[in-house]
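[Meeting: bench + compute handoff]

Bench side (C.D.) handed over the final construct sequence. Compute side (W.E.) agreed to return the predicted structure before the next meeting so the bench team could plan truncations. Sequence as handed over:
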Amino acid sequence: MFRPHTARKRDLADAPLRFALYVEGPRDRDVLRHFAQKLSPELAKTMDPCVRILGGKQPERAAQMFGRLVEEAGQKKRDKPRGLCILDRDDDERWNAKKTDDAQDAMSNDAANLEFVVWNRRQIESYLLVPHALRRCASKHGADTQFDRILASTLPDNGDEAAFASLNAKRLLSARGPIADYLGRPLRAREIVRNMSPVDIHDDVKAVLTRVRDYVGTRRNSVSTLVGQPA
C-alpha cells in the first residue's frame, strides 16, 4: 500500500541537489504529477523541483545530465545525489535494453546512483486507461452508451497486461483518437486522474512514486519497493 510521507522543510530545500527525476517530456512530468497529487499532495510538491525533461527517449542524455549533477554536488561538498530515469516502453524491447545499457556503461562510478525504469505498459498514458474514470469524464460531455461501446472495442480486458504493453495509449487519448472523435475534444490527463480513486492507480505507478517519496522525503539510501511489485 502506498503511504504518503511528509517531507521536512530542509528536505524541500535540498531535494533538487539530492535527487533528480528524469522524464521524456512535459506530458510525462504532468501525468506523473497528477498521480502523485492524487496519492499525496505533499509528494507532488516535493517532486516538482526534482524533475528534469530529457526532450525525448534519451537515457544517455539522462546519464550526462546526472553526471553534471554529481560533479556539482562534489564541488559543493554535498552527499552524492540519487537519480531516477523513467522511460516509456514503446514497442522495441531491444532498443530499450541496448540504450539503457549504453547509458549505464557511459556513466562513471560517481554517477552510478542513476537508476533506469521502463514502464511495464507501453507508455505512462497507458495508466490513465481506467474505464470508469473515462466514463465519468465523458458523462460530463454528454456521452451515452455509444461511448461504452468505444471503450469496449478499444481497451484490453482488465488485467491483460500484455495487451496494455502493446496498446498505443497516446494515440487513443490524442486529439485524433476515437475518444476525442466521439466527444469532440480529447480527455485531459488531469481530469481523468481527478475521476480516479487512489485504488485505481496502478501498482507500477505507485512503485515509482514510492521510490521518489523515499528519495525526496527521507535520507535512506535504499528503496524497498520495486517496480512491478505492489506499493
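W.E. noted at the follow-up: The first strand starts at residue 19 and ends at 23. C.D. will use this when planning the next construct.
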